[in-house]
């Protein structure tokens, strides 16, 4: 029982297949804090560069739209022209500000988890409407982490905001002694810098949240040992299926091999344990090719097929073993066996001529065939 419980513990790192499936479901590591900080920082930086121009544009729009003649008020076309004029005035500065913030919003997910559009994640799920599951999310470990982050942000922003206000207290108090427009420009400058400093303080939260979200994502996708085994079976196939496929492949290979035996010029045997069938195309300059080989039952089947098709058979145990162990089906025999095989083929061709025309019967001493020591195999 203890072993079964241990096997069910999620101790294994998620496989590539598990990560891909999670990604298809929309489950990728995400840090909301990273997205928020990047958008706020981008907005603050954009305001620093285009803020003055945007304020001037809005001021001009207010002047143009709040000071109107009576004729313009009752002229529909004139009001449309005023609207177009107002849009044209603020379009550049406002568009630049929006473009920077949108780029930041798009870049944040790419930095962590990458962009991911999942139809499964967008599909409605009734279980998300369950109040019980909602309470579990709120009061569960993830909810406590989010509460901790919220409290941390509150304390961090409050602390940095207080420090910034305290450091700028003299400049803020002198604003009342300045003219309205210079005072507003100075105030805007201080607000932007203060806002940028507060956003920068949230980087501390991001540095904690990003590694946590990656760790939590990996933890949620961890697998049990049994799940790893099942996935390997699905990916590579069960041993039983693989064995059956292997047997079928061997059977098909043997069937193709047996089809080539009748085309052989000679079958050399051990004489009982091994058999090899060779074919030599005299019109080509290549060496003899091994068309079939086998041991025991396969060797017996090769000899039977050879007998049925009148393929000459010769008993040469050392040469048979040398070819069997050093040559694969469809390959040429090694160069070290050229002389021995040439003598065998010459004997076979002479034997055919003798059977057709008569004369002196050829003879071959198979024990004296020249076989190099590196190709020899003991019985």
TrEMBL record:
Annotated segments matching region Disordered: 1-29, 360-379
Membrane topology (UniProt): Multi-pass membrane protein
Keywords from the UniProt entry: Bacterial flagellum biogenesis, Bacterial flagellum protein export, Cell membrane, Cell projection, Cilium, Flagellum, Membrane, Protein transport, Transmembrane, Transmembrane helix, Transport
GO cellular component: a single term: plasma membrane
Residue ranges with Basic and acidic residues bias: 18-27
Gene Ontology biological process terms from the UniProt entry: bacterial-type flagellum assembly; protein secretion
Family annotation (Pfam families): Bac_export_2
Membrane-spanning ranges: 34-55, 89-112, 150-168, 188-212
Transmembrane among keywords: yes
Cross-referenced SUPFAM superfamilies: EscU C-terminal domain-like
Location(s), subcellular: Cell membrane
Claim: Metal-binding is one of the keywords in the record: no
Family, as annotated: Belongs to the type III secretion exporter family.
Role this protein plays: Required for formation of the rod structure in the basal body of the flagellar apparatus. Together with FliI and FliH, may constitute the export apparatus of flagellin.
Name listed for the protein in its UniProt record: Flagellar biosynthetic protein FlhB
Taxonomic lineage of the native organism: Bacteria, Pseudomonadati, Pseudomonadota, Gammaproteobacteria, Thiotrichales
Gene giving rise to this polypeptide: flhB
